[in-house]
């Protein structure tokens, strides 16, 4: 593997000691790879897929993710808010994102499908038209977050204060609307 990699499949690799500084990956697939505690700073991933990978606690200072998909990945404690924001776009399917931060990011149209997102920080982020399909959000932080047209209709365990967030035209189901009323400390039966 060199500093520039295109259309390569990496399978069952342990990248914990690899130097990713200035490394570029275009249209690559990573399957069952270990990146935990790896320094991915200044690396660039474009049109890449990560499947069954562990990126927990990786460093992401100025990391570029452009149209990247994560499926069945462990992404615990990732500072996505330190990524390169230019053309930043990714989607998550069946991932564990607990204790990660998306603080102040503009990530419109992102999909979080069947994700575990305990105490994820979305404060001051723009999540317009984002989908939280069947995602579990206990303790997730929504503070001054733009959630216009976001879809929470099948999400659960979230608490969003409508007075502190922009939820114009966001979608909720009758089963999870109580997550909008938590600040009132009322009992809904």
Automatic annotation (TrEMBL):
<dbReference type="InterPro" id="IPR001646">
    <property type="entry name" value="5peptide_repeat"/>
</dbReference>
<dbReference type="Pfam" id="PF13599">
    <property type="entry name" value="Pentapeptide_4"/>
</dbReference>
<dbReference type="InterPro" id="IPR052949">
    <property type="entry name" value="PA_immunity-related"/>
</dbReference>
<protein>
    <submittedName>
        <fullName>Pentapeptide repeat-containing protein</fullName>
    </submittedName>
</protein>
